[in-house]
Amino acid sequence: MKTPSPKTTRRGRPARSDQQAEASRSLIVESARKLFAAEGYEGVSMRKIAAIAQCSPAALYTLFPNKRQLLRGIWEELFFELLVQMDGVYASAAAQDRVEAICLAFVDFWLQRQDDYRAIFMIEDRLQGEQDSYFVDSAQVMQRMAIFRRSISEAQARGELRAGDPVEMQNVLLCGVQGIALNLIGMPEVSWGDPDKLKRATIHALITGLR
Amino acid sequence: MKTPSPKTTRRGRPARSDQQAEASRSLIVESARKLFAAEGYEGVSMRKIAAIAQCSPAALYTLFPNKRQLLRGIWEELFFELLVQMDGVYASAAAQDRVEAICLAFVDFWLQRQDDYRAIFMIEDRLQGEQDSYFVDSAQVMQRMAIFRRSISEAQARGELRAGDPVEMQNVLLCGVQGIALNLIGMPEVSWGDPDKLKRATIHALITGLR
Lengths: 211, 211
Known about the structure:
In chain A, about 65% of the residues lie in helices and about 0% in strands. By secondary structure, the first copy, chain A, is an all-alpha fold.
């Protein structure tokens, strides 16, 4: 349960408008995102983030009690962008290409944000106490990935994919696309050959295997 | 280029035998592995590793100049175990099941070593200076994954997989198996359903797609 934010501060000043608070929050998240991407999650202090975001450490700690909460803020922002991108692809692709196009969009999203990917995924997501939960909170993330399941169901209805639970098929595809991103971004020294070819071949093999 | 280790110390004592040095190295790597798995890579100091391995910090730093070198030692040890396991699977599986069996063995290896997986893969593998290289050094790792390519080539020769570059097919399969491990171990809060079913369905879809 979230405590509702007080409308006035202890000193009786009126609370800043929601819009101002949101702008300040965005600036902090954006500053942290750039710093984590450039210098790595572990190497960046809360003090440095506050300095770049031009807010006091106290104000930063009020919004984000620790670095991990900031990482969660960045993750949520990126995840929202990813969903918007996949929605756009769904709308613009021909019906029979949608499942493949969404998988490609997922991989491309992270290939275009490799620094963010490393900052977000290549750290240990350890729980910080009992109140904490993983970034990828099951219900929310999976609910919002509905565009995957919708494309799969529609392809099944057209006879392009075999019958089966769309959630299970989505999860199979998510293993594929996550693995492509992990290998290409997390292990850049491996000779993967042409990244574009690997990406397309893997997604194509998976979808063909689900027919 | 590695500097050859001196045969005598500065004080003129005879060097310990290679066997002793190897035993000491193994004990340090094993201690670090347990500590990283239990407490996370970032939370463990070189001093603590030395204490658990019952060696002096100076001796530890001589063998491993920094924590990252230790992580590399652990990674190499695990990778060797993985190769041994895959070789065993190749030897025991029926010919037509080998590609699938090796993929399953790869995933199962990490599912049985989830703490190690998190310690090794879920940190930022940042290069520490120009002399440094990524753990996954292209030539070595990929050369030693020969069992993958051999199984693929043999399946092609029997007509069970379509013609094509075995290296490219290996890389496609590696994306799949890495993604399964990443999702199941790195995002345990996502409702993936039965892990065994997801693992088998993903590998099966990939191999079917390569037929």
